[in-house]
C-alpha cells in the first residue's frame, strides 16, 4: 500500500521513519505548505507543494495528516477526507465529537474512510480505557502522564515577555499512583495526580521572580499544580532538554464477584513522543486501507478498528504466534 | 441480550457474577452435566441438564462454555457452535489453530458466530502483544506470568503418589523483568523468566525428599525452573493457599527513528483469576451478539473484535468520554 505525508514537522518525519520499518508500506511523497524546493526529506522521498496533493491521488492509498490540532486539523482533515482516505492525530479531547462529525460528513460524502484521534492519548490509552471499562464495569480508571515534555505547556511559557525558550515536564505523583494501584479508587484533582517542572531561558535583564510567579499562576496550565521553575541558559536548555520523551499509564481497578479486587494497567515509556505517535498513525493507515477494501466509509476511531487490521500478519499467522 | 452458562465450576460462577454487573445482559440459565437437581445457582437462576440445552434456544443469544481446554472444549465448542452463538476460553496455545478450524466449520455451517480463546492469556495479553507488535515492528515482546496460582502445575503435583493436595505459584524473576524493561531485548529461556514455588500436603508416612525431587524433575512443568517445595498441612494449604490470584505482564520494547527506545507494557494483578476471565467472556459475548447482528459468521478471536463492540456505551458516548 502507498501512503503520503501531509505536513513535515517532527510528526511527519516520524511517519517517514515508521514507514521504512513496515515492508508492506511504501511512502510515495511528502506534501508541505512551505516552499517544497527548500526542504529535503530525510529518506530522499520527493517533496511536493501541499496545494498540488490532488494531482498525486493515484499514488496515495492513505494520506497521513501531520499537522496541529489547534487550528490546522479542524480545517484540513475534513477537506482532505473529501479526496483521500486519511489519518490524523487530532488530540483536543473536548472537540473530538465535533471533529468526528465534520470528518464523517466529508468522508461519507466522497466515499472515503478517515481515522481521527490516532496516537497514544488519544489512541492506545483510549483503547486501554475502553478494554478495562468493558471488563471491569464496577471500577474506576485513572490516566497518569509522564514523565514527559508537554509541548503545549512549554509553548505557553514562551509567550511570557522576557522568556527566550522553555520546556515543561509533566510528572506523575508516585503517592497518587500507589493509592490507585492499591485499589483505593480515590477522588483526585488534576493537581493531586501530577506536578510540573519547568526549565526556562530568559533575557539577561528579565525579572526572574516575576516570570516564575507568572508561570505558576497561569490558569488551565500551571495554577493548581505543584510547579517548579528553574532558570537555565539557552545552551543548557537545548543540550539537557532538547529531546521529546513522554509516556504514562492508564490504571483501572475494579471489583468482581464477592469483593475480589482486580487491576488492569497499560503503560508507555517513550524516548520519542512524535516517533511513537507516528508509528501508531502508520499502523492505523494499514488498518483503514483494509477496512476501505471491505467497504467501510466515513469517520472511525481506534475504537472501531479490529486489532488484526493494524498488523501485516495474516489471521492464521496471528493465531499461531500472538494469540 | 440473553446469555446462558454451560458448565458450572469456578469459571461458570464467575460468569454468573459478571453478568450481574452488566445491566444490558440477562442470564437465563445454567446448564450442567451433573445432576441439575443437586445444584443451586448462586443467583437463583434456573439450573438445567446440559443435554437439554437445545430446548432453551429461544432464551439464549450467546452461550458461554465454561469447561476445560484439555478434553472438553475441543468436542463441546464445535458441537455447540452448530446450535448457538458461543464463547469459550480455550487456552491451549499450541492447539488454537486446530480448534479454530473445527469451530469455524461448525459455526459457518450453521450460520452462527463463535468467539474462542477469550480471557486474559489468551485474550487481553494476546491483544496487547498484537497492538505492541503493530506499533513497534522492530522490537521484541516478553510475557511474564504471576505471581499467581498455576492450576495445571498444581494438578500435576497432585498426581504424585503420597500427595494429598498442592498449590504451585508461578513467580516472575525481577531481574529478567528489569532487563526487558531497560530495552536490552535479552534471549531468555523459560527458566530465566520465572521461578516456581510449591506448597504440598502429603500423607503422614510419605517420603518428602523423594516427592520434592519428583516435583523438581518433572519435565515440561518444573524441570529447568528454580522450584522451591514446602510441605504444609492440608489445613494450612486450604487456609493460606485457597485463593486463585494471578496476573502478569506483556512488555515490548522497540526502536524507532534514529535509535529511540520505546516501551509498551500491559499488566494485570488479579485477586481472582476465574472471575476476571469470566468478565472478559461476558464482554466478548456482548461483542459477538452485535457482530452476529451485522452478519458476521464463523469463528473469531479477540483480534477480530472492534473494541467498541465489547462495551455497552454507544459510539457517541465512547468518543465523548473514553477517547
Keywords:
Dihydrodipicolinate Reductase, domain 2; 2 domains; globular; 4-stranded mixed sheet; Rossmann fold; 323 residues; 7-stranded parallel sheet
Task: List the chains of the largest interface with their residue counts.
Answer: A-B, 68 and 68 residues
Number of helices of chain A: 10
Spell the H/E element sequence of chain A.
Answer: EHEEEHEHEHEEHEHEHEHEEHEH
Strand order of the largest sheet of chain A: 3-2-1-4-5-6-14
Distance between the termini of chain A: 26 Å
Can you walk me through this structure?
Two copies of one chain form a homodimer. By secondary structure, chain A is of the alpha/beta class. Chain A has two domains: 2-121 and 274-321, Rossmann fold, CATH 3.40.50; 124-272, 2-Layer Sandwich (Dihydrodipicolinate Reductase, domain 2), CATH 3.30.360. Helix content of chain A is 33%, strand content 25%. The first copy, chain A, is built from ten helices and 14 strands. In chain A, the strands form three sheets. In chain A, strands 3-2-1-4-5-6-14 form a seven-stranded parallel β-sheet, with helices on both faces. In chain A, strands 8-9-10-11 form a four-stranded mixed β-sheet. In chain A, helix 7 links the parallel strand 10 and strand 11. In chain A, helix 1 (10-20) packs across helix 9 (273-293) and helix 2 (72-81) runs parallel beside helix 3. The first copy, chain A, is globular and about 55 Å long. The model of chain A has no long low-confidence stretch (mean pLDDT 97). At the A-B interface, helix 1, helix 3, helix 4, strand 13 and helix 9 of A face helix 1, helix 3, helix 4, strand 13 and helix 9 of B.
Amino acid at each position: 500500500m502507498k501512503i503520503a505525508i501531509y505536513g513535515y514537522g517532527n510528526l511527519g518525519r516520524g511517519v517517514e521513519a515508521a514507514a521504512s520499518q513496515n515492508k508492506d508500506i511504501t511512502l510515495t511523497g511528502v506534501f508541505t505548505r512551505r516552499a517544497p524546493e527548500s526542504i529535503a526529506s530525510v529518506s530522499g522521498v520527493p517533496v511536493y507543494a501541499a496545494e498540488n496533493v490532488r494531482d498525486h491521488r493515484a499514488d496515495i492509498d492513505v494520506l497521513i495528516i501531520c499537522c496541529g490540532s489547534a487550528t490546522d486539523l479542524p480545517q484540513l482533515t475534513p477537506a482532505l477526507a473529501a479526496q483521500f482516505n486519511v489519518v490524523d492525530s487530532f488530540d483536543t479531547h473536548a472537540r473530538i465529537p465535533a471533529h468526528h462529525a465534520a470528518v464523517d460528513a466529508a468522508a461519507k460524502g466522497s466515499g472515503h474512510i478517515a481515522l481521527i484521534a490516532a496516537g497514544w492519548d488519544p489512541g492506545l490509552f483510549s483503547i486501554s480505557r475502553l478494554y478495562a471499562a468493558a471488563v471491569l464495569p464496577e471500577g474506576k480508571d485513572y490516566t497518569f502522564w509522564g514523565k514527559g515534555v508537554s509541548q503545549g505547556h512549554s509553548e505557553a511559557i514562551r509567550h511570557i515577555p522576557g522568556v527566550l525558550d522553555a520546556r515543561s515536564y509533566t510528572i506523575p505523583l508516585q503517592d497518587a499512583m500507589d493509592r490507585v494501584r492499591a485499589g483505593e479508587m480515590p477522588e483526585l484533582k488534576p493537581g493531586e495526580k501530577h506536578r510540573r517542572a519547568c526549565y526556562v531561558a530568559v533575557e539577561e535583564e528579565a525579572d526572574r521572580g516575576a516570570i516564575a510567579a507568572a508561570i505558576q499562576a497561569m490558569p488551565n496550565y500551571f495554577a493548581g499544580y505543584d510547579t517548579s521553575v528553574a532558570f537555565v541558559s539557552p545552551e543548557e536548555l537545548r543540550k539537557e532538554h532538547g529531546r521529546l520523551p513522554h509516556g504514562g499509564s492508564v490504571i483501572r481497578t475494579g471489583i468482581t464477584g464477592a469483593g475480589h479486587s482486580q487491576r488492569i494497567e497499560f503503560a508507555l515509556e517513550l524516548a520519542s513522543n512524535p516517533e511513537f505517535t507516528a508509528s501508531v498513525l502508520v499502523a492505523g493507515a494499514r488498518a483503514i486501507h483494509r477496512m476501505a477494501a471491505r467497504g467501510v466509509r466515513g469517520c472511525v476511531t481506534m475504537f472501531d478498528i479490529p486489532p488484526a487490521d493494524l498488523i501485516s500478519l495474516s489471521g492464521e499467522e496471528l493465531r499461531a504466534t500472538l494469540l
